[in-house]
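Re: [ENG-882] Designed sequences occasionally contain unexpected residues at chain ends

Forwarding the minimal case from QA. Structure tokens:
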């Protein structure tokens, strides 16, 4: 390996010839969140999860009527919204506790709205769409929280615009 500039090669294995960008930043080298940042993330995740649960509960019964055909639109959109929320938290924050608390917010609001109010109204009536709405977010949360960590990726730092 003499005569070769070793700064362009991965130094983890002697004799390795894998080129690595010197400006690359490993995910494991990114700063860890502070305790205050983590607590704030958890509180916000719980609140956002509760909002998603409330909106999904109200919207899951929405249907599109085309003549005699009724197409449920609210349920798939609500489930996709819950999946996007939990998966986004899991991929961006890499913290299962945040995802778990967002899921707790969603499921707690669904449980709260499935109980009859003092006036007797129920936002989650008995029916197939409602059963799917009460079980679906729990299954989605279980899969997203239990999914193993993805392998680390190297993120390349972009040079400033205009520099060459």
């Amino acid at each position: 390996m003499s005569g070769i500039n070793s700064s362009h090669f991965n130094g983890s294995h002697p004799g390795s010839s894998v080129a690595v960008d010197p400006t690359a930043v490993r995910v494991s080298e990114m700063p860890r969140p502070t305790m205050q940042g983590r607590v704030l993330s958890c509180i916000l995740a719980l609140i956002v999860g509760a909002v998603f649960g409330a909106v999904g509960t109200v919207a899951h019964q929405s249907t599109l009527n085309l003549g005699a055909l009724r197409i449920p639109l609210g349920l798939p959109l609500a489930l996709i919204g819950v999946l996007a929320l939990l998966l986004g938290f899991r991929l961006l924050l890499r913290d299962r506790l945040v995802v778990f608390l967002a899921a707790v917010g969603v499921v707690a609001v669904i449980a709260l709205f499935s109980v009859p109010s003092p006036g007797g109204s129920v936002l989650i009536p008995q029916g197939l769409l409602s059963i799917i709405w009460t079980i679906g977010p729990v299954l989605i949360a279980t899969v997203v929280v239990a999914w193993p960590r993805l392998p680390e990726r190297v993120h390349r730092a972009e040079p400033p615009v205009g520099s060459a």
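QA comment: On inspection the terminal residues look reasonable. Residues 1-13 have pLDDT under 50 and may be disordered. Proposing we downgrade this to a documentation issue.
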